[in-house]
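From the shared-data thread, chain only:
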Amino acid sequence: MTSYDRYAEKALRDEVLTRDECRDVLATPDDRTIELLAAAYTVRERYFGKKVRLQMLLNAKSGACQEDCGYCSQSAVSTADIERYGLVSKEQMLDGARRAAASKAQRYCVVISGRSPLDREVEEIADAVRAVKKEIPIQVCCSLGLLNEQQARSLKAAGVDRINHNLNTSEAYHSEICTTHTFQDRLATIRHARTAGLEICSGGIIGMGEQDDDVIELALALRDVKPDSIPLNMLHPVEGTPLQDCRQLTPQRCLKIFSLFRFLHPRTEIRVAGGREFNLRSLQPLALYAADSLFVNGYLTTPGQLAPDAWKMITDLGFEIEVDYKQAAENDPQLRSQSLKPLNVLPQYASGSSLPAALPGGHFEQPVK
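Structure, as tokens:
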């Protein structure tokens, strides 16, 4: 019988699990999942203690993407019923940052749809980030699609701390989920961001029909990338997307994958990202025994778990939220009340029309670019 503690011991010695050992982790019997999580927790506790960092997304431009990513309701091949709008205003991006701070988020991530941002969009986002940084000492991440080096440098100069660009899956499986750009295109964007001096947030999506070896290869490829943060999304099949009938995940399967990533990335922030409500269901708290970060207040097109509910879940576990700047909400009742609003529900579109409180069907969507 496997002793999962030995995998934790290897991770704590900075030794890489073999592929056979990785397969063994993913093949853990369901009735031993808690034992596996306990081993993963010894690694998580060594480097992160009982701290949990929160992150929040703003869907700053929705729909009308030219790419054919099979998982995404905003893609060119999706017929999903979602809202579509252009880049929101500077004030709306600033308002999102205020709500992120009020929700105890360490980091605020501005996300736009599309293959690559226009230079004009990069400048508008950079201008908004400058305004955010003048008012709120929150860390800012941007997820804008494929970037060239000059765009990355412009974002860095404006005060952007981090770029999110996920590998999504293994290189071998990538063409099964997207044909309009390559795995190497994604790596090139990461190189451009790093050259510009930006931190890197890069992870993937599980549950898209991949095999165990694809999960393992993704985790190992990320060791080469050496990201500062790894968001792990769990596919929520959205009606109208090519992967709408792909339902291979169970809560136990997700927890095994989070444990594997912790063994292979012992010192790296790992975030429980999109799809956690749908796939982990009542076992959501257990993911924090391997991971150390959460998204709150929504993903891209619909709300997720509200911040106060996440706070309670974290404290019920005996964990604590870590924020390394003073909270804007502590002495400001107006900001404090904003933490109850889903972050992706903005007062207005850039065009002036109102956003709905929620979209039809109640889908939760992955924060992926």
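DSSP finds 13 helices and ten strands in the chain.
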